[in-house]
Amino acid sequence: FKGGDTCEYLLSSGRFLGEKVWQPHSCMMHKYKNSEAKNCLIDKHVVFIGDSRIRQLFYSFIKLINPQVKEEGIKHGNIPFEDKSASIKVDFLWYPEVNGSMRQRIKSWTESSVAKPHIIVVGAATWSIKIHNGSNEALAQYKINITSIAPLLEKLAISSDVYWVLQDPVYEDMLSESRKMITNEKIDAYNEAAVRILNSSSRNSKAKVKVFSVSKLIAQETIMKSSDGLHLPESSRDTNAMILMNVYCNKIMKPIDGSCCQPQPPLTLIQKIAFCFFTLSIIGYLIISLIHRNNYRKNKSCTDLESGEEKKPAISTPNVSTLEMLLHCFCKLGLIMTYFYLCDRADLFMKENKFYTHSSFFIPIVYILVLGVFYTENTKETKVLNREQTDEWKGWMQLVILIYHISGASTFLPVYMHIRVLVAAYLFQTGYGHFSYFWVKGDFGVYRVCQVLFRLNFLVVVLCIVMDRPYQFYYFVPLVTVWFMIIYATLAVWPQIVQKKANGNCLWHFGLLLKLICLLTCIYFLSYSQGAFEKIFSFWPLSKCFELNGNVYEWWFRWKLDRYVVFHGMLFAFIYLALQKHQMISEGKGDPLFSNRVSNVLLFFSIVSFLTYSIWASSCKNKTECNELHPSVSVVQILAFILIRNIPGYVRSVYSSFFAWFGKISLELFICQYHIWLAADTKGILVLIPGYPMFNVLVSTFIFVCVAHEISQITNDLAQIVVPKDNSTLLKRLLCIGGFFSGLHFFSAMQDQSRH
Asked: Which residue range or ranges hold the NXPE C-terminal domain (predicted)?
């Protein structure tokens, strides 16, 4: 990738994804809403100068500001437009030929006393070809006229954005008799003259007239849909207007999914400190490695020259020290974070918009399912939701979610609703797994809590620092973390009720159910009281963790979307463990979970429930309405899947090692995809190898999976060091972690102050 200005690529190259979606070369284009367009162009004056084609572009542009505008102006005259609410003026000036009149108008803006337009869009040629019947003399005069106008445009380009729109090709078969002389050969000659003359005298890079040549590429694909062979269809000129908006507004509005024309963000103070820390870790690790290597060479076995016998070293090779292991982990992590930064914050690699087709989603799904079935093995134990089975479940769900994200399938509502169930199933497992552990083990110690919190949050905290993103941006980790703490608080507060205590007295079971009912009541209250929820999470320091764009609404929405499913997971764990304790289920290898009759009935109802939910989800028409029902009904498909997977003994006795492998690193896969598989914070796709989409996905996926696996190992290694079992040592580490976050908060406050 040769690098360069993405604005240049946006104005000159790209391709269609499907029929209507334009993909610029190397960068992503943002789709501006009316409110965004107004905010960008507030107090601005925009001028379009040219013929009927420029008039078309003018109308498409002002419709981005006000969609209610109708094309009712004078055809061969000036057309003004003003949005008084945002003080925006957009004018179309009718100058169908590049001549003295056009030059005089442009010259008037170069005078110091006159207010200059902020954006000037110029283009004309077809009238000159038509009026002069395509003569060579007209082309020669066109060159003379552009030569006289070019210095004026370059002078304006110092303080304004000036665009010269090249002429689009025509569809010659559809042209009327009066326009037959307008041929693509003539248009190419006029365009060539304009490109050669413009900017030829300018040595100042700021005084450059931007050549809007991308319209030609768009027209080559769509001109055959033109109504008269000369003017572009509406969808094509709307694309041109959106490109123009991106060129000017991206550097002002800085949309996440608009990487074209956006400058690389400067390094923050915290990012610089992180860079220094990782650099020192790499240097420190290399120094320690060299010292150990030299010691090993000195103590290496050698041959006694006199006796001819081998001498053994006096000192054995020492074990890896905690410091070396720590530096080794941070060394690897530093290299990985450098890759993260280069992929999604630097301008080194390309980014492209997503484009959904049914085949781009369903074909990979079928492929991974076949692979998963191929790698089927026997389980070590045959209990319901055993470790291998839950890893498998997490694995295939994670792979489906990844395909969903890279294919842009969120635009297809039935797929979106099914993916919502998969996210809910992750949270269901959170409720099931943590409740089972606390209920059976009765271990409410600080060590357990710290281990879980560290493993969940380590990668996200590092990414918040390196990628300059708030904690809530990686919404799933805050969600799982909060639910873990809710489960812990529910079971740990007095009276602590665990399985061992409840077995001695059945009344304790009712005490636990009472706790669960209280939890359900609190969830219900908070889900329907947005004000109370926001007050709780608006207190410092919670607000620092859960605010996004200055408020906690996004956090409330995410929490509310799956508010009951963790409770369902806890309740399912309680019922299952009670049935297991009273030997009401059979978990032997190959045995059905219940008696044959009960198993068959439950299996039948489970399949019907599973399919019924899928039919309902597939018939969804309104995302908001379906999201309202989702928290209450998602458990139906989750429970149906668990029963289908576990009732038949032969199904419960096998698992897919392929899916289970991915399941063990599912959290890392979910988080890493934000920056090194997708791009622009999940809004686009990372392009390592331009021009070969399939090969690019294979290479980026391989790197992405390897990185996620490596981070999982680093997290596990660091967890042993940072969270030791010894309570006094753990307390010291917790004080250090507290100091770290205090320092982070201090530097964050300094950053915010400098930004403001």
From this structure: 22-72
